[in-house]
Amino acid sequence: MLLHAVKWDRKAAVQWVANAGALSSSITPTGSELAPELPATAEALAEGAVSVEHVTALAKAMEKLPAEAETAMVDFAREHPPGVIGKFGKDVAYALCQNDPEPRDAEPEPLVNQLMKSWKNGQLEVKALLDTVTGAAFEAMLDPLAKPRPDTSGQGPDLRSRTEREGEAFAELVNLMMRADQLPEHGGEPVTLTLTMSYDDLAEQVGQAMLDNGERVP
């Protein structure tokens, strides 16, 4: 109808209808009145403080801004021509973005301690994955025991590799734990290491002893 009544082109007519919808209150099916989508703009237009061109520019800018930014946009429009409202809207959007809190990184998954062990050729192969705190505590206990042996006149320099020194340090750490006063219990009894061998072999210090798991120890 606007196309014929006031000789507007289609674009202008569509924009006028959109502006009217944003500036007018509406009635719900239950009879409740809803405030205009752009109440501050509607008030300024009613006062004659802004033009229809201002309204068009404000409506377009507000498509990308939160509702609380409308008052600042209208205050700017009261003092400036419609052509600069779009740029001011971008400046407002940028300022609001800068005020947003920094996104927080997702909480990392908690590390789970893992131990893998298997017997091979009379030796227990051990692999472990420890969390940061447990790993640091393990290193703190192991490192003093794994230091090179002092160069004494009786033994000479320590020729063991780092792997050998740390392996023997780990074995010493296990022995220290076996003698600790607060070891966990197994089946209601303190943890013990049981070796079985004949009395004669024990007396003669020959042969092999057998562990509970079937492995033999010279």
From TrEMBL:
Xref: Pfam families: DUF222 (PF02720)
DUF222 domain spans which residues? 32-215
Reading the lineage from the top rank, the first entry is: Bacteria
Q: Where is this region: Disordered?
A: 144-164
The molecule here is called DUF222 domain-containing protein
Q: Which organism is it from?
A: Lentzea aerocolonigenes (Lechevalieria aerocolonigenes)
